[in-house]
Fold this sequence. Notes:
C: 66 residues; 3 helices
Amino acid sequence: MSKDRFMKVYANLPENVRQEVIAVMKVGNIDKPFTWNSAYVEINNDTPLGKDVLKKLEKLELI
Amino acid sequence: MTSQSALITRPEHDKITKYLSEWNDEIIAEAKKRGVPMKDLAGEKATRAEFEKFLNKQNPSLIFLNGHGDSETVKGHKDEPLVKCNDNEAVLKHKVIYALSCDSAAKLGVSAVEKGTKAYIGYTEPFSFLTNKNKECRPKDDELANVFKEASNQVSLALLRGKSPQEAYDLSQMKFKELMQKFSASNAPPDAEEIRFWLFWDMQAQAVLTS
Amino acid sequence: MTEDSDIKKLILARLETMPEYIQINLGSFGTLGKEDLINHVKKGDDFGKKFIEVQMKYLRTFKQGM
Lengths: 63, 211, 66
């Protein structure tokens, strides 16, 4: 469900907006920024990181 | 009885007020083009004494206030209060005001409308605009600032063109959205994200209060 | 990790991408640069809180489309 919501929001985003940072995720031991674009790569490929990003975006009420 | 004329206050004592003053050159030119008599209280003339003296004599229907402010005040030259809540806002009675000043729509605008101001367009939070620190000696050439000038000036231009306060506010809000869209496209410059956000800041802080 | 700290981290990460030449002119708050904004957010003062609030409001507008 949240993947669908992300895809809908992402599809509707203007190109330049897709470059904005929308989440900070711990990858290994390091905090890394994710833009709409980098989040899309993870979510579209159904990675574990992608699932974490989705949870974060829901928590932040961005999708 | 109000005449079809306008008053503008535009102090110029620091960087921010110099930019706002320069933005209003376009407004003054529009007034001249339309044959709307406009009294220009610029720089050191933007004092409370000059402001009230003119309003006691001429009674214009439009007032454009530019300068620093807070929720209860719009200020003039060297931050002297020109109009203050529960003090002299009655001078704005029956007039339409556009206050390009921080926060004044939060309290001063509300009080002014309660006391007979026809409409007060302003901001409920600090008005923001971006500048390029490499271009601050030449405000006219500052492309960053000019984006905000375009959105703000829409209010004054619309009022001079005979639009109602609500229409002027709506046109300015549309201009904010149009500019946010423009700076969202694939060919937007590197500072587009900051332009978008601060346009949004101003757009959501802009308010129209009517009697 | 609390939601507030998640939000603060996000806003600070967003600020890191801001070009150095941009100045934000904000009336009574004066002229702010990138480092000033970062400090306000880290301190969590009135302006810092307001900035975070409006940033989140802005980000949430994309749910409905521009």
